[in-house]
Write a structure and sequence with these properties.
With 228 residues, the chain is mainly alpha-helical. It has 2 domains: 159 residues, no CATH class; 49 residues. Helix 1 runs parallel beside helix 3, helix 2 runs antiparallel to helix 9 and helix 11 runs antiparallel to helix 12. It is built from 12 helices and no strands.
Length: 228
């Protein structure tokens, strides 16, 4: 069972591997160009493990940001995790020794792989989810190290490289749109985000958008449960 669980978890994580190696490499290059070596890149990827926040973190490090600024920025950038992770509580409840790491490693991409709750037949469900999370994490760390090492020996222009995270989110949205027959949640997220962007501006729209999306989806779910 363990061998099959490892195999299935790896196969599930392969799409994320392609993205994380490229995006992690971009982060590693940014770190090297900012004057931070491979230990910095590896440590941030291993211990922080927040793609978009790590890209932002490069600017915070080089700009000498205060601790308060770092805290507030981190909360704003990663606030979405508080909302979509709620749907994973039931699946992680009985995860035992795997639970702390699985909570830490629940990135956008790992969530997209595990949120449907489907587990291949003949595998340990908790070990399977743990390994998917672990494989994805290892790809990100490897990409960060590789990029930092490449940045030390090859000249790179980092202009526009920060758009890579946006590109990944667009790809994830497109994949979920194509694989799901119910587009209402996706449309809810898209329209709510656009509305809050117009109302609150690009610096402050994230948390209001998440609250609005959560509220609407909660109402829709209650309506479906109440329907005969």
């Amino acid at each position: 069972m363990k061998k099959r669980t490892v195999q299935q978890a790896f196969l599930k994580s392969v799409p994320v591997m392609a993205g994380y190696l490229v995006l992690g490499t971009g982060f590693g290059i940014l770190m090297r160009n900012a004057g931070y070596g491979v230990l910095w890149a590896a440590s941030m990827s291993l211990l922080i493990y927040a793609g978009s926040m790590q890209y932002v973190g490069v600017g915070l490090l080089t700009g000498g940001a205060s601790v308060l600024t770092v805290i507030l920025t981190t909360v704003m950038v990663n606030a979405r995790h508080l909302f979509y992770s709620i749907s994973m509580l039931g699946r992680y409840r009985d995860a035992g020794k795997y639970k702390p790491y699985m909570i830490f490693a629940l990135t956008d991409e790992t969530y997209s792989l595990l949120c449907d709750g489907e587990v291949p037949e003949g595998v340990d469900a908790n070990l399977y989810r743990f390994l998917v999370s672990l494989f994805n994490h290892s790809y990100w760390v490897a990409g960060g190290i590789l990029g930092n090492l490449l940045g030390a020996v090859l000249p790179f222009s980092t202009a526009g490289i920060e758009f890579s995270m946006t590109a990944l989110f667009i790809a994830s949205f497109t994949e979920q749109w194509l694989s799901s027959g119910d587009h209402l949640p996706a449309l809810t997220g898209l329209l709510s985000t656009l509305l809050c962007l117009l109302v609150f501006g690009k610096e402050s729209f994230l948390i209001p958008a998440m609250l609005l999306i959560t509220g609407i989806l909660t109402l829709l779910r209650r309506r479906e449960e109440a329907a005969p």
